[in-house]
Amino acid sequence: MANYEAISDSVNTELKGFKSLPVRLRVNRQRINVWILIFCIFPLASGCVTLTHQTTTDTIVATVFTEPAADTQNVPATDFKLLGRISIQSGNERSSGSFRWQHLALSDEILLFTPLGQVVAEITKDHDGVRLITSKLEAFYATDVESLTEEILGWRLPLNGLQYWIQGIHSPATAAEKDLDNKDQVVAIRQDGWKIHYASYTPAQLNQIPLPRVLDLSYENLRIRLVVDDWKARR
Fold first, then answer.
1. Model pTM?
2. Which of 80, 87, 160, 205 could form a disulfide with 233 if both were Cys (CB 3.0 to 4.6 A apart)?
């Protein structure tokens, strides 16, 4: 796996012309299906590997119920940069690839790649809203990531919650249930209709808590597996 900086340079070059697109396009289902077919020709297994890192025991010793925070604006998710792989199963459709995600307090940028490293979509979220640009230079806009990705990609990306779940914590915006093991490590989170199971964590290091390595997300008939290969988090 190339390092973060190398991928960032190549992606920025490839998407250089995307940023200035002024056109607001309506959804074209035929174009969406073409993207899905391209992404689905690779087997789901390419996003999954045999892991040797610390894994959860799945021995639940406590379930914690949390209420929404009074002021969620004062509980932002910690900034991070990630490189990883993603596998999606939505009904009978399966796809896999890799991703790069940079999260800041006021913005998100997510790039989706085929297993061969080709950019298939760029998703950005900031104070202006959400934008998704495909590899065919088609731009789509919405007010939230979840509805936009469901319409364009065919599956939901729950970014509002995922920015917290990817770090092993629940979102403070809504009520949640958390299952803990005998080390007070989170085994699962149930929130906003999603169930997040933590299959593996990074090894514990001095002055740094373990971070999720493999997450399995489920929502109705949608299954998403995320494997984080490179963590850069501010703690």
1. 0.77
2. 80
AA letter at 111: L
Amino acid at 142: A
- In SS3 terms, 49-82 reads as CCCCCCECCCCCCEEEEECCCCCHHHCCCCCEEE
Both tokens of 85, joined, read: 């792989």
Domain interval for residue 37? 4-233
The percent of residues above 70 in pLDDT, for the chain, comes to 73
Domain count for the chain, please give it: 1
Tens digit of each residue's pLDDT (9 = 90 or more) over 212-234: 999 999 999 999 999 999 998 77
Are residues 174 and 191 in contact, defined by beta-carbon separation less than 8 angstroms? yes
The interaxial angle of helices 145-152 and 29-40, nearest 10 deg, is: 80
Domain CATH code at residue 45? 2.50.20.10
